[in-house]
Amino acid sequence: MQDLNAMRNDHSKRLSEETQGLQQVKEWVSMVQEIEPRANRLLDESVSEMQRLSRYDYGSLIPASTYRYSEKVLMTLEQVKTLRTKGVFEDVVSRRPLPPLVIKLPPIQLTLSQQNLFQRACQFLEEQNVGALCIYGRGGVGKTTLLTEIKNKFLFEAFGLVIFVVVKSEVVESIQDAIIGRLGLLWGTETKEDKAAKIYMALKGQRFFLLLDGIQSGLDLDKIGVPFPSQENGCKIVLTTRSREACDDNKWVDAKVEVTCLSPDEAWDLFQETVGENTLRSHQDIPKLARVVASSCRGLPLSLSVIGEAMSRKRTVREWRYSIHVLASSTAEFPDMEDGALPVLKSIYDYMSDENIIRLCFLYCALFPENCDIRKEDLVNYWICEGILANVDREKAELQGYEIICDLVRMRLLMEAGNGYCVKMHGLVREMALWIASDFGRQIEHFVVVAGERIHQMPMVNDWGMVRRMSVTSTQIQNISDSLQCSELTTLVLQRNRHLKLISGTFFQRMTSLVVLDLSLNKELGELPEEVSSLVLLRFLNLSWTFIKGLPLGLKELKSLIHLDLDYTSNLQEIDVIASLLNLQVLRLFHSVSMDLKLMEDLQLLKSLKELSLTVRGSSALQQLLSIHGLASSIQRLHLTETTIADGGSLSLNAMFGLRELDILGCNIPEITTDWSSTIQRDIVKIHNCRTYAQ
């Protein structure tokens, strides 16, 4: 009920600020106001009901009034949960201020043929005997655009729940996690079977609309926990895939719609719209040249959008003629490619300015699985530690990294995701990046990327000496004991392998060139081997969200290390080796080992430290920390726990003028004050776990 009231207050505030409030939101707020007094009465009665219940022993007959009370609690709780689920209004949420460095692109209008496909798909879904619809077509043809339009149409129909899922490589669990998140259910380390049971119980009896974007093969709805759509329950499922075979594999699909490339006239209209009238009118010869460029995209909406966006800033005949030459050269260089879209998209890569930076940053993004949300912060940190962003001033390097991400989003080579704090690659753009990174398919082992729950062991590679970057994520791997001759490997991402418990020392011994090692979100990983000492060039190490208990003494040998992430390592106890890492610029201990006098002394030895995340327990340690200006000013995230400010006093955080996130848990602090008026305007400061707020 507290969560529901918070949602109600948030929506009510926004409605009061809008000149035209949404009727659906008003009705929802009214329903919350009706249920609130019922919930409060039940909570008031709970004290006496618990006292009455405590008088009975095992085997006693419980009075009927207690049963009736229990039934009211269960019914009201279900109503509250339903209202919480329904209380997400995307057209209201979209009015929130965007996070920093988010590029908002204009929506792409549907062409006539796409509108016809949209109408056809909607007609299918309005038929009672069609419970599941499959939309298929080649990459970049506009399936996701069509699916998004379908979601928008049915969002406020009679469905109790609309769920949109971008399917990742770990198919079953990615869908389960998305559904559980949308339902607002609590979950921890449940198995897939437990999640399936929980989802089934939550969806059973609801009229849901499930949209699945990017299916690659058949789906077993029973394993996910999704009830089959039927005329009786009125539920609907829509999925997209590249192949008709994937549609056919799902025997429960009732209808199919194929999305094809645009006709020449439609392709030209889309290209003109993307380029813009100002550019097309800048010279009388440009429209004729623009038709040549548009025709090279072969009616593929993604290519037309990406190429059109790149050409929108070119307003001389010479630039257009050169672009036509680049397009022709890319296509002629690879005439036998089955998918002609890749050579066309490659022309954008060829035309990128500042080859040594933006090109490398773009190719780096291919290291992550398809449909994976990539945190912008992670990308920038990787690029800095790899030396791609080589600015001596770390803050300037970070700004440069975010500007490059913005450029790639404007060029439509990356897409905004994760509320603006993440990006992802369109599947076809990612294929192009991997193709280029592998020397146009000639050295496919330069980039090794594997992911998904079907993977149970490390990938098989013919020549490990050729591997430059490797990513192994979201697999079922439990132990890694291989000894790999990876003398050229610079980047190793081993993330989200939820069953990974052991990495042997021999695994790292021959990775002498490794610069970036990311082991985050391996929640069963309990230790790091001493042989990590052989990674003498390592600059970036991420162990966040692992079960690691201590840092090996061999870590002292990593003199090049500048970034160490130990956030959310709640089991960590011993970190004395940090005092030896004198070149550290970034150290993160948020929700990790608590600050004590020894750690405070060790941190003062790190003269290069620029960014610090800490966990502080108790007012004594906090006051000592605030008195050390160099440390206090470098803190960006602070987890404060079991801290009391006596006699109604006030806690001043003025010394932490770099603070961006504050997490308060189990504290007694009447008031917190801070003054950032003399500093550069910060991002929004996030405050978590705080039950009450002082003015």
Automatic annotation (TrEMBL):
Domain (Disease resistance R13L4/SHOC-2-like LRR): residue spans on this chain: 467-670
Domain NB-ARC: 118-280
Lineage of source species: Eukaryota, Viridiplantae, Streptophyta, Embryophyta, Tracheophyta
UniProt keyword list: Plant defense, Repeat
Protein name: Probable disease resistance protein At5g47260
Organism: Camelina sativa
Pfam short name (any one): NB-ARC
Highest taxon listed in the record's lineage: Eukaryota
Domain Disease resistance protein winged helix, residue spans: 367-433
